[in-house]
Amino acid sequence: MEKSNEPLIGPAVPYPLGYAEASVATQTVAAPLLAGASLTLLGVIVVDAGDFRWPGLTLLIVVTASIALIASMQIGADARQYLYNQETINAWYTDDQQRHSRALRRRTEHFIQWKVRNRRAVIVFNTGTMLLILAVSTALVPPHDDQAIWRWIAAGLALASAAVEAWWVYRLFHKTFEVSPEKPKSLDGGMS
Question: Structure pTM?
Fold first, then answer.
């Protein structure tokens, strides 16, 4: 195998390397499951409002959590269009087209667009998760005194979890992008 003499172009490598796959799993598996759980909790609260101390507040938080989780799926899907690999390029463009395509020269811009949009999806997902945990904590607050101590403990644990998730969202929102090791690749993957 000879090294290509083609100029090195293309986006930086996602860092950490598995971040793109982790984001896809979050947006296509975890977010839909949590949105479904939110909507289920919503139904329980509507049907059995008398069993909750603050059914109105809990409903508001659950609805907000559902919206955020669904929005994270949509934002993530929008972001995904800007992340593609060499196999995708090879599937759609001939070698000659790859050398002359303006779209392929925009790969770095597309990669940056993916990072920006995907970060939004991650923040919205984590906000939805925090709100869902907060809704669970308000749902656990006992309406009456029977078994109150255990429900208060469970509500406190859920509230503590929501606080940890809020800290995580704050950290994600204020985190600067970590720079990946510079390793640009040629359009043919270094093979010719």
Answer: 0.76
